[in-house]
Amino acid sequence: MELSNGQDKFFQNNGLGNRSEREFLEGPHGRLKEFGFVLRSAWEFVRGFRKLHFVGPCITVFGSARFKEDHKYYQLARETGAALADMGFTVLTGGGPGIMEAANRGAREAGGTSIGCNIVLPHEQHPNPYLDLMIEFDYFFVRKFMLIKYSLGFVVMPGGFGTLDELFEALTLMQTNKIRNFPVVLMGKEYYSELIASWSRFIDEGTISPADMDRFLITDSVEDACQYLKKNVVKRFGLKQQLFIPNQPSKAGAT
User: Fold this and answer.
1) Please, which residues have CB within 8 angstroms of residue 220's CB and are 6 or more apart in sequence?
2) Domain span at 36
3) Were both Cys, which of 33, 50, 77, 162 would link to 102 (CB 3.0–4.6 Å)?
4) What is the spatial distance between Cα 74 and Cα 99, in angstroms, rounded to a whole number?
5) What is the domain-level CATH number for residue 211?
C-alpha cells in the first residue's frame, strides 16, 4: 500500500511539530510534542515495512559518501555490488553518493535490484541515480533499524563515523545475541588494519573476548567476500544453494 501525499503531510507537517531530530534530542519537551514525535517515528517505521517487505534477500553495503568515481574504493564497491547481484542478492545501501552509489551502480549494471534508504539532511545525502527503489527517512534510528532488519549480512567498505557506527551496531547485536551468525565483511585490509590491530587492547583489558574477532571477515577480495556471505547466509537462513546460481536462459524444446 502506497502512502498518499496527504498522509505523508499529515504526519510530517501541521500539528505534529518539527521534523527535526536535532530538536527532539535537545531534551524534554511538552507531552503533546513528544507524542507527536512518537507518531511520526511510528509512521516512518510503517512506511519502511511496507516498502521493504517484498524486496527479496538483501545484503547492505556501507561506506563513505565522499569517494569519487575515480577512487579505488569506489571501483571496489562497484565490483562488489555487481558480484552480489550476480549471486541473487538485492543490494541495499544508504542511497547516497560515494560508496553507496558505487554499490548500487554495480548491482544495476549486473541486472540486479538496487535499493537505497536515504536520510533527509539539509545540505547533503542526495539520492544517487542508480536506485530501483528509494525510501527516504527523517530519523537515523529508523533507517538503521531497516538496514539491519531487511539485511542478511553487511559489507563494510572504507568509511567514516557513520560507517563505523553501523559496523559496531552489528557487532554489538551479535555479541549480545540479538542477532546470530550475521555475516559482516570488512573490505579494505590496508584501510582497516590499524583499527583492527587496536582491538587487541580490548582483549587484553577483557572488554571483548578473543572469539569476538571471529565475528567478521576482513579482506580485499570480492570473491572471498562473496564466498563468506554465501556460507553464512545459507547457514543462518537455510536458503537454497540455487539462490547463488545465476539464472540461465531456458533452452528451446527443453522439458
Assistant:
1) 76, 187, 188, 189, 190
2) 5-48
3) 77
4) 5
5) 3.40.50.450
